Structure formats: C-alpha cells, structure tokens
Amino acid sequence: MARTRTTIAATQLTKPESSTKHQARAQSAAASVKHESFMNGSTSVYIEQMYAAWQEDPNSVHKSWDAYFRNVEQGAAPGQAFQAPPTGGLTLTGITQPSAGAASTALSTAGASVQSISDHLKIQLLIRSYQMRGHNVADLDPLGINSADLDDTVPPELELSFYGLNENDLERDFVLPPSTYIGGSQTSMKLKDIIDRLKDIYCLRTGVEYMHLTNYEQQDWIRRRFEAPRVTELSRDQKKVLFKRLIRSTKFEEFLAKKWPSEKRFGLEGCEVLIPAIKQVIDSSSSLGVDSFVIGMPHRGRLNVLANVCRQPLATILSQFATLEPADEGSGDVKYHLGVCIERLNRQSQKNIKIAVVANPSHLEAVDPVVLGKVRAEAFYSGDHKCDRAMAIMLHGDAAFAGQGVVLETFNLDDLPSYTTSGCIHIVVNNQIGFTTDPRSSRSSPYCTDVGRVVGCPIFHVNADDPEAVMHVCNVASDWRKTFKKDVIIDLVCYRKYGHNELDEPMFTQPLMYQKIKKHKPVLELYQQKILKESVADEQYVKDELTKYGQILEDAYENAQKVTFVRNRDWLDSPWDDFFKKRDPLKLPSTGIESEVSNLIIDKFSSYPEGFNLHKGLERTLKGRQQMLKDNSVDWAVGEALAFGSLLIEGIHVRLSGQDVERGTFSHRHHVLHDQKVDQRVYNPLNDLREGQAEYTVCNSSLSEYAVLGFELGYSMVDPNSLVIWEAQFGDFSNTAQCIIDQFVSSGQSKWIRQSGLVMLLPHGYEGMGPEHSSARPERFLQMCNEDDQIDLDKVAFGPTFEAQQLHDTNWIVANCTNPANIYHLLRRQVLMPFRKPAIVMSPKSLLRHPMARSPMEDFAAGTHFQRVISETGSAAQNPANVQRIVFCTGKVYYDLVNARKHIGKENNVVLIRVEQIAPFPYDLIQAECRKYPQAELYWAQEEHKNMGAWAFIQPRFNSLLAREGRGIKYAGRHPSASPATGNKYTHLQEQKELFAQTFNATKKDFEGFKP
C-alpha cells in the first residue's frame, strides 16, 4: 500500500473508537515502548502517531510494529509487548497472548525487537542528516579543488558508523519516515537504496540548504521538489533551448575577446550558465504571471545580460567599444556599469514582458536596495499590491555578498509592510574568489550565502558545470517565490577564467587554481558532448547553431561601425518617455495654492474622527494648529502638511520614509495618529482630504540609512510625477548612506542620464547637543556640486530664466530654509519643475517650534514662489546708506543673529540676509543685495567650523561675483576643527558668543548675560 501521511498527526485521522479509549491505548503503547532505554519523549509522540496509523491500516507500518501493536491490544504489560519474529524473517502469521511459560522466552527475544526499532529510528536520523548536511559534501566545485563550504571533512552524521550500522545492514529493509519522498510510492527501502537515493538528491551537483527554515510547510514543499523521483529531467526541446542559450552566452564573450582583446569587459567566462539561468527564471516567472523584471547586478557579465537576456541590440552594445562623440551633457560611464530597459515578447511564455537592468557603479551591492525600491514603486503605481506582476532578480558576487553590510540591510526590508516586494530571486555568481582574495580570507561563515539564513531563505547551491541542475533550481526558485512570496538564493558555484578583468594576471595569487582552469573545458563544450551522447542533437545541428549565432555577431559588428552617436533612451533603466513633452525647461510655475485648499488641509490636519481615542497631549497640538490658522501664523509642521496635502489633492503621490518619520524625531509632525485604547488603530489625516486624491505613504523605516535611502532612490526613478522623501533621524546619520549619495544621487544624471527628484531631509543645527547630532555635513554636498565657483559676467545674463537655467544645469539642489513657507515652496517646486533634480535640505530641529520661525498664510497663496534669498525687512533696510555691514547666513543661525543684533542694538546698521538656496548659488539675487548697500562690508556668518558648512563654497563665488566692484567677503564663525561640534554645553555657548562678536564687530563681553 502507498505510504500515507496519516502518521504526521494523529488528530487528522478518523478515529475508529472513542477519543478517550483511543488515547488510553495509544498512551499504553507509548508507555510500553518508553519503558525501553532507547526511547525519549519525542519518540513517544511519534509512536502514538504510528499507532493511530496502524489502527487505520495495519499494513501502513512495518511488520515488527504490527506485531508490537497487536500485543498491546492483547493487554501485554510495558516491556513485554515486543515479540521476536520467527526465524524465517519479519513476517508474522499471528500474534497470541504469551502464556506464563512463554513469558521468559518473550523477554529474552524482546531485545532483538528493541534493536530493530532502534535501527529504524536511526535511519530516520540518517535521512534527516542528509537533508540537513548533504550539501556539505555535494560535488559543487567545477574545478574539483575547493569545498564550497570551506570544509573538506565529511560530517560524521552522514556516516553509517555514526549510527552503529555497517555494510552488513545495507540489504536490510527500513521504514521510510513521513518527512521524506525518496521512496515515491514505497513505504520502505533497502538501506543501500536509501543511501543511493539520498546521495543522488543531496550530494551530487546540487546542494539544497533548507532545514534552517522554521516553517514545516516550506520544508515539505522543498522536499517534494527535490526528493520525488525523476523531477529534474528536461525534455529534448528544453535541452536544445538550453544548448542554444549556452551558445549565445559563450560565443558572445569569445567574440568580444577576439575583436577587442585589450579592453576590459568583465566577461562571464567560467559562469556562462548564468545567462540560461536568468532566462529560465524569467521564463518560469513569466508563466506564473510576472511581467516586469528589475535586475540588479555587478559588472561581471553585464554586457552579456544586456545582449542575451534583455536583447539590447548587439550593434548598440558593440558601439560602446568604439570612440563616439558625446551626444549629451553627461560624462557617461564605463559600458559595464550601464543600465537598460527593454520591452519584448517572451518566447517561452508567449507573454509581453519588461526587463530593466539598473545602472550600477563599482560599489557592487549598492544597487540592491535601489532595485527593490524600483520594484515596489512599479507595483504601487500599477495596483499590484502583492507584487504578483513585478519582481526583482538580484545578481551578486560571492565576496561582495558575504562582505557588504548593505546586503543584510536590504534583506531586512523583505517583510516590512511599506518596503516588501514579496520576494526576490538572488543569483550568486560564486567565483570562489574575490578579486585576488581567497574565500578563507574574505568570510567567516561556511558559505558566501549564509546571510540569507537570517531571513529564512532556502539556498540552492549548484555546480555551474551542470546546466540541467541549474535549470531545475531556477524553476524551483521561481515557484517558491510565487508560492511563498519570500526571497530565495541560487548559488552558482563556478570559477573565473581570467583575472578580475581580462587584463589582470591571476597566477600571481592563485597559481594552482588557474593551472586547473587552463585545462578545464568550458560548460558549452561539456554540454555539447552530453546532448550528442544522448542523441538529443547531432553534429550538423550543433554546427548550424554555432554558425547562425556567429553570423549574427558579425553582422552586428558591421552595423556598430556605422553608429555615430549615443541615443540616451538606449541606456535608461527607467525611461520617462512622456514626461518632458510639452514642458518648457526654462519656465518655473508658481508654487502657491488657493486659500480654500490651504484651509481644507489645515482643517483636516488639526482634526480626528469621532470615537478615536487620541492622546491628550496631541489634542492640545491639534487645537494649536487650528489656532495658528486663526492667528495667521503657522509653524513648520503645518508648512509641511500644506505642501504634502496640496500635492495629494493635485493627484501627486507623496512618500515620506525614514526612521520615526510618522511622528517625527522631534515630535513635530504627527502624520499618523494612534488610538490610545485600540491596538494598531491609526488615522492619517492627509489621506482623508478629498475623494480621488493621491495616496500619501508615510512609513517608519528600519534603523538603516544605506539601504533605505537606496530604496527611496529606486522608488523615485519610476514615476516623475511623485514626491519621494527620505528623512534622516539626525543629519549626520546620512554618513552611513554616503555610498548611495556619492555613487547614485550626486552623479546619476551625469553618468546615466538618470534624473531623480528625491528629497533628503537632514536635521542640522548647532544647539549644544555634541558632535554627533549637530551637523548634516553640508560641506560634503556642496563640494559635490557641479557648478563652477567662478562666474563670467560678460557671458551670463541675470534675466527671468536665470534661476530655471541654473536648476536645469545643476546636479542637485542644496538648501537650508528658515521658515515654513519656504520649505513648502521648495517641496512643491520639486514636482512642478519641468525636470527632476535631487534636493538636499538641511532641515531644522529647534526651528520646528521656534516662535520666530512662523509664516503668514499669504506666503502660501497663489502666485507666491520659493525664495532663494530672503532680504532684510527691518529698519536697516529703510536706510541703506547707514548700513555698515551686510551679514549673509543660512539656516537656523539667522534667528540667533537676530536676537544677538537686538541685544547690542545694531538693528539700524547691520543687515541680515538669508541664503535659503546655497546651490545652485543665487548670483543674481546676491548681486542685487550687495548693490543695495554699496558702502557696507560683507560678512558670511555660520555656526559650523570654518572648514565645514558653506564657507568654502560661497567664498570664491562671492569674490568672483564682486571682483569688478573691488569687494570681497569675510568670515565670522568658529575656527577650523576636526570634530563637527563640541560636546560641552558651556563651550558651545562661549563659541556662540565668539561668533556673535565677530559678526557684529563686538567683544564677547558685550554678550555677557545673553542667552542665544
């Protein structure tokens, strides 16, 4: 009879007798067995389950157990239920109650039965050990010299001797446990057959690592797909498709090597199976409903992926090896960093699909969160909330996958509600070497993929020289992602035929490995021999296919010689085809709104639903917002809300992400209200403004900067008609996201023609809080601006389009706003501009509640706009001839200076001017301000140290602008320092007084008793 699953849980059975009686008999059986020394508690449970199965069908258990249970039914006491089988074997014709005279005989033979049962349990442990540790001895290295897990020893639990068994036991029959499918319909197998089957499944060229999963259903699902007999065979047609894909992968690299032998291309030699693997994942996933694939990968094999997975025209790719005149303002990037987006028919599923490869710099794993953000955005905009139609495929190198911290940060986003993409398929190109570093020196874990165990990824290690095994794991991985919506890892254990690049000499550091590689046949040749041997194809077929693709490459080479310019659209991973049409790039519209809209937003923002149990402190906050509207003086939180709310009403999706952004680190925002009595009952007022509005996503992130900023960058790439914001908990936290900032945000348009309107809010301000929570390091962002620090006034016209032209030409915007209206206009300008630029905003901390940092409602009204520079409006501005000093500044220090100026009575002869947008530098407005006060000396005052802040950026620009007038600008502020700020409150106050003294030509004594 076929083995049933009834032994898994007795409660699933239809019980033939009452529950109480059944339980009593089962417990009696268990007690009898437990009386023997080799039993334990978990075994007792298993015996109860087996007993229940036996009651259903005595033939469903081994005959020795059948005999045992019959004795229990006859009332045998614990320790006496075992009865030795007849000498002819295990077959018993009947069991009778032993007589008193036969009791001693039963006891003397019980030991044999106990040993038999013990042996059966040991076989179950043996099977489990292969399931858990078989991958450790699998034949994974194509070269046959390394162990993928860095350990050459055989786990003792895989040896028969570990269980006290030997070769004499190989012909014995053993019952198969319910946790394996190796027997198919068989319920028992000979030990030698069990071992052979386990080795075939777990120890050949696929190592299945899945027993770390804590979900039994998932474990069982994987067992079914690997243990069931004949699950890995491909049809003849599938083998031919695989062979043709190997031809394309292999011959593409050989062609480039022949035509451009001295060029770096980071070829795929040694892992040519990667191309068929990616294509198989796409084929399988496409048939399961996925129609959008976003690929993130390092540079190894990128050109091959673009050519043979995305089907980017070969002539377009080959033209990258030629010398072309630049066709755009971008500096460009090396060809193996470029991205692409292609829409085409998938021939295997006969469905239209879109494949995007995200451009990626040399920080190999930096692209991981960017890819996930892009997938999440695509799913959001298409209403694909479970990511059934959009999927990420992430490619990794072994050394980077194990060594780069962003990998774990990205994995940690997997199941977070506002970040999940419902599973990603990871493919590791496991070269077994990192640049020149042996894996034993590059990781501490057994496998390079062990990071995936943290989040419960099944991991399929596979020898890259076995293409059919690779295809099987690709199919399983695709099905896993569809079924469980969780990540999965395919570890392609391969080798790197050349050095780190084609011009590198690997024999310097890996002589033995590369001696072996030189003698090793490529996978195409190995698979060609296989299909010829199996008569899947003949020599003529092989010759025809090789000739056909060779001619395709030659034709593409000829066409590449005719390419004379680069078409930007060919290398964009997220093209915005319709965005730039009918937009005047030099026209900036007003960012103000009508009063009825602002009144609606503030009304909603200061209210909550009836029956909602709001915190008493927040009740006061909401009433305060209502009062601000009446007083015509709103704070920062209201300014933000007006920006977000007005965009939402206009149909613009807004996403705000970061640590604690729902409330705000400084407890000013409160965009998500929490019911104080009902767990997880929340209310988001900005999502309750008007019917048909866009969705506002405000989400607290994990405690990550690198991955989360990368995620939001990827999200911002998909749809330009959105406002995507990442807020750091403190500005200096962006330090750990610097790779994303440097490699993607600041230079993305220059390298990849990749525009993004991402906003980074970085809390900044010196308030005596120490060196780690003061500075967002504005100097770093200013240093990376692409704007020249010299201006030629003979060539530049300060006209109405000057601001728009500057914004169009800059790589990003750096701002430090001082009032709610200006941050409101800045945020709205991000969306209303006819192009997209990242905005780096030094956002406030103390100004969030500062009584002077308020704005009247008329500053938000229709016709108003962002103020790059805010002029002096006090008494000094009324008498320009009396002004002795113009002090330019930016950010929160302005309010400190206002109070200090009032303290020493210099309101009439010192002008304070706020530079709200530092980059692009507002030359036109600065010139106008300086000409208002022709007799005044110019100072730049900042709270940052002299080697920090904006001073190094603004000084040459001021001096270049004013050189003809014979004027220059001087510095007032802290001295240079290695640390951003002091950690001593008293020292901070003394430094502030020194700043005021320099700014107003006074002494520190003039500020005794003054509290800034």
Automatic annotation (TrEMBL):
<protein>
    <recommendedName>
        <fullName>2-oxoglutarate dehydrogenase, mitochondrial</fullName>
        <ecNumber>1.2.4.2</ecNumber>
    </recommendedName>
</protein>
<dbReference type="InterPro" id="IPR029061">
    <property type="entry name" value="THDP-binding"/>
</dbReference>
<comment type="function">
    <text>The 2-oxoglutarate dehydrogenase complex catalyzes the overall conversion of 2-oxoglutarate to succinyl-CoA and CO(2). It contains multiple copies of three enzymatic components: 2-oxoglutarate dehydrogenase (E1), dihydrolipoamide succinyltransferase (E2) and lipoamide dehydrogenase (E3).</text>
</comment>
<dbReference type="InterPro" id="IPR032106">
    <property type="entry name" value="2-oxogl_dehyd_N"/>
</dbReference>
<dbReference type="GO" id="GO:0006096">
    <property type="term" value="P:glycolytic process"/>
</dbReference>
<dbReference type="InterPro" id="IPR042179">
    <property type="entry name" value="KGD_C_sf"/>
</dbReference>
<keyword id="KW-0786">Thiamine pyrophosphate</keyword>
<dbReference type="GO" id="GO:0005759">
    <property type="term" value="C:mitochondrial matrix"/>
</dbReference>
<dbReference type="GO" id="GO:0030976">
    <property type="term" value="F:thiamine pyrophosphate binding"/>
</dbReference>
<dbReference type="GO" id="GO:0046872">
    <property type="term" value="F:metal ion binding"/>
</dbReference>
<dbReference type="GO" id="GO:0006099">
    <property type="term" value="P:tricarboxylic acid cycle"/>
</dbReference>
<feature type="region of interest" description="Disordered">
    <location>
        <begin position="1"/>
        <end position="32"/>
    </location>
</feature>
<feature type="domain" description="Transketolase-like pyrimidine-binding">
    <location>
        <begin position="634"/>
        <end position="850"/>
    </location>
</feature>
<dbReference type="InterPro" id="IPR001017">
    <property type="entry name" value="DH_E1"/>
</dbReference>
<keyword id="KW-0324">Glycolysis</keyword>
<dbReference type="InterPro" id="IPR031717">
    <property type="entry name" value="ODO-1/KGD_C"/>
</dbReference>
<dbReference type="Pfam" id="PF16078">
    <property type="entry name" value="2-oxogl_dehyd_N"/>
</dbReference>
<dbReference type="GO" id="GO:0004591">
    <property type="term" value="F:oxoglutarate dehydrogenase (succinyl-transferring) activity"/>
</dbReference>
<dbReference type="InterPro" id="IPR005475">
    <property type="entry name" value="Transketolase-like_Pyr-bd"/>
</dbReference>
<dbReference type="Pfam" id="PF02779">
    <property type="entry name" value="Transket_pyr"/>
</dbReference>
<dbReference type="GO" id="GO:0045252">
    <property type="term" value="C:oxoglutarate dehydrogenase complex"/>
</dbReference>
<keyword id="KW-0479">Metal-binding</keyword>
<comment type="similarity">
    <text>Belongs to the alpha-ketoglutarate dehydrogenase family.</text>
</comment>
<keyword id="KW-0560">Oxidoreductase</keyword>
<feature type="compositionally biased region" description="Polar residues">
    <location>
        <begin position="1"/>
        <end position="17"/>
    </location>
</feature>
<dbReference type="Pfam" id="PF00676">
    <property type="entry name" value="E1_dh"/>
</dbReference>
<keyword id="KW-0809">Transit peptide</keyword>
<dbReference type="InterPro" id="IPR011603">
    <property type="entry name" value="2oxoglutarate_DH_E1"/>
</dbReference>
<keyword id="KW-0496">Mitochondrion</keyword>
<dbReference type="Pfam" id="PF16870">
    <property type="entry name" value="OxoGdeHyase_C"/>
</dbReference>
<keyword id="KW-0460">Magnesium</keyword>
